[in-house]
């Protein structure tokens, strides 16, 4: 069976690092889009070679359809056509609806949503010509749920979600599966959504029912499944990966450690 080729749109990000680690061990070759200097990738590329994975570093502007096509022409000559496109661009900056500047709004929308459109168009056309493929969007629960901090980020993730639905409907006719992973909080995201409006991320760890936060590895395992033949009937799905965080809506029901509890407000199991 020929090896699959996987494109990771933002290899520099925390999610990109997790995806690289998983897919490099999974019998695939990789195209890693990065803004970093090639020299910074030497160690990672050596690890890929040791695992039997060929990896190609690119620096393409994902908001340029012609740029993506030119990159794919070169990549196909070296390691073959792309079977799996993972779009994991997730730029954000604190700004409310009232005070968000136009330049800031456009930057976030271009980085997250416009790039998703051009990637879908460029990769989708080539996958359609070959009769199959998988497109995976690493998005956010904030495509539906306001975060009270980064209005433009939520708007961009909502756009990505609907783009994915439209693409799943159209590209599915050519054997291409398009799915969305809606990420919730992971380790280190407590500083991502500072807000005077919402307490959503206050004590956010304890709003996950198990109090165990997800990791880049959890994301990578789900993406690896969606990229594989085991997920051949999964198309147009929004898969929430948040440990149940989105189900929480009452601060007084947080599952805090025993030393921080107010027992009169803690849930109890009837026996």
TrEMBL record:
Q: Which CDD domains match?
A: SDR_c
Which controlled-vocabulary keywords does the entry list?
Oxidoreductase
Q: Which domain of life is it from?
A: Bacteria
Q: Does the keyword Nuclease apply?
A: no
- Give the Gene3D superfamilies listed for this entry: NAD(P)-binding Rossmann-like Domain
Q: Which Pfam families match?
A: adh_short_C2
GO function terms (MF aspect): oxidoreductase activity
Family of the protein in this entry: Belongs to the short-chain dehydrogenases/reductases (SDR) family.
Mind telling me what this protein is named?
SDR family oxidoreductase
List the source organism. Answer: Paenibacillus rhizovicinus
